[in-house]
Design a protein that fits this description.
The protein contains 2 helices and 5 strands. It has helices at about 10-25, 25-45; strands at about 5, 50-55, 60-65, 70-75, 80-85. The protein has a 5-stranded mixed sheet with strand order 1-5-4-3-2. A hairpin with a 2-residue loop joins strand 3 (about 60-65) and strand 4. Helix 1 runs antiparallel to helix 2. It is globular and about 40 Å long. The mean pLDDT is about 95.
């Protein structure tokens, strides 16, 4: 089975926010920050269960931390659905993880 990555609208908005946060440091820094997340998500294609289970956030959710970012995702058949990309220090209890 070949897995594919799918980003929810919320995750896409999170990525735009990430890029904008780093833009003050220049476009190269913003692009590099985004690339780190994209590479992290791509690793899931080989090791989809490498993130820790986060049933406390929602059914089937898993998370993977890289630097100061938390990638929240779930497996849905042949898809790895990237649900959110948030600051690791975020108040998770007030974050919407619905897809």
């Amino acid at each position: 089975m070949r897995l594919t990555l799918v980003y929810t609208l919320k995750a896409q908005i999170d990525l735009v926010g990430l890029w904008e946060d780093y833009l003050a440091r220049g476009t190269a820094a913003a692009d590099a920050a985004l690339q780190v997340v994209v590479e992290q998500a791509s690793e899931l294609l080989t090791f989809p269960e490498m993130g820790r289970s986060r049933e406390d956030l929602g059914p089937g959710l898993r998370s993977l931390r890289k630097n100061n970012r938390l990638l929240v995702y779930k497996l849905e058949g042949e898809h790895i659905v990237i649900v959110r990309v948030i600051y690791a220090q975020s108040d998770l209890s007030s974050t919407d993880f619905e897809t």
